[in-house]
Design a protein that fits this description.
six-stranded mixed β-sheet, 32% helix
Length: 184
């Protein structure tokens, strides 16, 4: 399976197609973001992703193959087969779950260490969606940035964007930033 996945990563044509990893803690809103906002599906029932989802979406005339990786730690041994050749990373944070921000920071640091150690994925842009901004108590992008210790990241461009996977607010802003930075 690893070889087949590697073939998928390396078999793209023009540079208007990019491979993007999407990850975050479970129930952060990754799958809702992917299917409701990026694919345009209206009836999305949130469930915890077991394994991964792979979807092709178009943003500003660019094709993005998005790998929505399940947020459970049991899957980490399989990460290497997904990361080889990734062009960008989307990290989704539930901005209302203050008690999990330390875990989110730790997981992001582990993810970036893992990604950086794999060939071909250094300097990939990082888009952080501070999700669930439509709910009371959601932390601002600045607070999420501080909680995730993003200022310490020196090896890649990054941006935190407030969003709501439930209503779509902020998603286009984030995706437009990502596409612009995938091209540079």
């Amino acid at each position: 399976m690893g070889n087949a996945l590697s073939d998928l990563w390396t078999s793209h044509g023009a540079r208007n197609e990019y491979r993007v990893l999407m990850w975050g803690l479970w129930y952060s809103g990754k799958t809702t973001l992917l299917y409701k906002n990026l694919k345009g599906w209206n009836n999305v029932t949130p469930v915890s992703t077991i394994g991964f989802n792979v979807e092709s979406v178009t943003q500003n005339e660019h094709n993005l193959v998005i790998w929505d990786l399940g947020g459970r730690d049991k899957l980490r041994p399989t990460w290497g087969q997904y990361f080889s050749g990734a062009d960008g990373i989307i990290y989704v944070v539930d901005a209302t779950e203050v008690h999990r921000l330390d875990d989110a920071a730790s997981e992001l640091a582990s993810l970036l260490d893992f990604v950086t150690s794999n060939k071909g994925v250094a300097n990939t842009p990082l888009l952080v969606f501070a999700n669930k901004q439509d709910l009371a108590g959601a932390k601002s992008p600045q607070e999420i940035s501080e909680a995730l210790k993003l200022r310490a990241i020196q090896d890649r461009k990054w941006k935190v964007v407030a969003c709501s996977a439930a209503n779509g607010n902020g998603v286009d802003e984030g995706m437009n930033w990502l596409v612009a930075n995938l091209q540079s």
